[in-house]
Amino acid sequence: MSGRNVLVAKAWPYANGPLHFGHIAGLLPADALARYFRLAKDNVLFVSGSDCHGTPILNRAIEEGKSPAEIADFYHQQFLDHFSQLGFSHDLYNKTADPRHHEIAQQILQRLYHRGYVIAKKTPHLFSATLDRLVADREVEGTCPDCGALDSRGDQCDACGKTYEATELISPRLKNGSGDLIIVEAEHLHLDLRKVEAKLRAWVEEKQTIWRENAFKTTMSWLADGLKTREVTRDIDWGVSVTIPGFENKRIYVWFEAVIGYLSASIIRCGGDLDGGEWEKWWRPEYLPIHYYVHGKDNIPFHTIIFPAMLLGLGDLALPNIIASSEYLTLPEGKKFSTSQGYGATVSDYFDMVGPVEGLTVDSLRFFILARNPEARDSPFSWASFSNFHNAELVNKFANLFSRVHALTEKHFENRVPVMVDGFDGHQEIRLAIDSCYSDLARLYEGANFRAAVDRWLELVVFANKFINTHEPWKQVAVDMEKAAGTLYVAWQLIYNLLIMIYPVIPFAVEKAFSVMNITVENANSAGWVRREILPGLGLNVRTSLFTRINRDDLPED
Fold first, then answer.
1. Is residue 364 in a domain?
2. What is the pLDDT of residue 425?
3. Is residue 30 a contact partner of residue 75, using CB atoms and an 8 Å limit?
């Protein structure tokens, strides 16, 4: 199946600190999805960006004595650079500071307000007499009202994932200051989730066998508690300004305008405005678009309750199909990676090691994170398991397969893919093995099941190695060159298709192999998600290693 309109929507990381491995574990599946669907000849729109607003950026600016814009611009550029180095193939990586995003977010708020989905309402807020102003949720911490965890954030508990209002915290206090907090009434705009609760419930109940368990259970928990109104404006001076009369001195709450980024980025990339344009192919239900939302489990409600409620309020817009919500990548002692607390390796740390550490590549990280992705439960990361996995799977199984087939071809067949007398047709078992793997991987990739997809691909790598070991072409060349040619010809067919299949996961190594094989990426990707054959007689370039071993001692301690 091809020609589908597929939106891949990757969460927008806060531009308040460096990207760490935990971020990448939650975001990298989006790139693999986009690359797979492009290979399948679908129409892909892959969008994301940097979340440049909100209290975390204000807090970072205060800590560093800089303006919020300086902080956001610095980390946005760093994100751009690091995502590019990691091979993320966005069609647009934007930022919420883009004036075009501001305009679209303001228009959406206005439309929801005029249609009655956003209402004005007075609610309790925390007020600091010391600061003489209302304080934002991310400025306070306290005890979680749900699980009792200490030092919980003012909007969501990291321990149990529960979201709440800052006024619900037990013993709330300022994070960066002192003085008592009191509760006062203040008027803000609210998204009235009650108006779409019945529609949301019916829609979510259809997703039980489609969404990941964490997404479905978290969403049903929200629905079981009953949906309420949720504040969409706040009293700060950093963010998207509100244009609704009476609220002009407020800013749009970051959670509201950040998810709008998926739609605004689509409009900006494709052209048009909120009333129409090429972007509609990926958003209007009549085009049957397929939507993937890729993020961590702490963002589930925003993608399964909040944003869908906004889309229902706007009307005639497609709702999410797949919620690829990951659990956490954790450190050996069980802690999760954290920017604010400085836990775990950052992407900058990794790139500092690529080059100095022999064998370490970008694809080493991509392969490990996707093969051990925390899809259903938290997944531990250690440098020991990372290096062992790289050496056992990428080097011993795959790179060695490529190298020894190429070495025999170079030595005995003038570095050209050998000609097989009866072609590939006589090897039905091989063709069926390849076709079966394409079919399985299509199902697994489209289900965002990357752990199982990599395992399935490795099964075919083992199959290819077994084929070589059984036929022993290094012995055949001494007694029957025709048989040796046939064995190596089939081996190259296996290798070529293995490369296509794993391209969404390790694109740099695949492109390196294609260069050795005198195949352009465009030609290799032109056939769609089907078995293809490499031409006999194709001249190969100088032999090279796709991966080499990593010495564990060259990596940091766990």
1. no
2. 60
3. no
